[in-house]
Fold this sequence. Notes:
This is Phosphoesterase. Keywords: Metal-binding. InterPro entries: Calcineurin-like_PHP_lpxH, Metallo-depent_PP-like, Phosphodiesterase_MJ0936/Vps29. Its EC number is 3.1.4.-. The chain is α/β, with parallel strands linked by helices. The chain has one domain: 4-Layer Sandwich (Purple Acid Phosphatase, chain A, domain 2). The strands form two sheets. The protein has a five-stranded mixed beta sheet, with helices on one face. Strands 4-5-6-8-7 form a five-stranded mixed beta sheet, with no helix packed on it.
Amino acid sequence: MRLLLIADTHLPKRAKALPEQVWTEVAAADVVIHAGDWVDVALLDELEKRSARLIGVFGNNDHGVLRERLPEVARVELDGVRLAVIHETGAGRGRENRCDRWFPDDDVLVFGHSHIPWDSTTARCLRLLNPGSPTDRRRQPHHTCMTVEITDGRLGAVELHRIERAAGG
């Protein structure tokens, strides 16, 4: 199973559209996960149409219809891997301990908010993944997204992808 992880798209404020490279990854993914800060419901609608399966949460910049249609926390089991999605986990310092307490029954936590790619494993073996942003790199050198492979109930390859050029931003 191939997952595409994205977050912090901030459309249309930070870019006019998702980069074509991301849409290519959407088409190749069995599951697309968006960890919040969509900003405009049009992207949610488009991802629902173009994704085989979409899992998303709202972020601190999402209001109105986005908060009505999306949860703050999403939990799903994918091929035996227990996955949770949330937008914000707080400061980087202490994140692993905090997330171990907050998500004691999960194997993987996907989050966003910082726009900083993150891949770590907690003391309890919870994998923490932040794909960065495909449209608003802030102080990061590149726009990014992440792909994850799940095989036979185990997390496999996790790959951070550099987005060559964000559309309109």
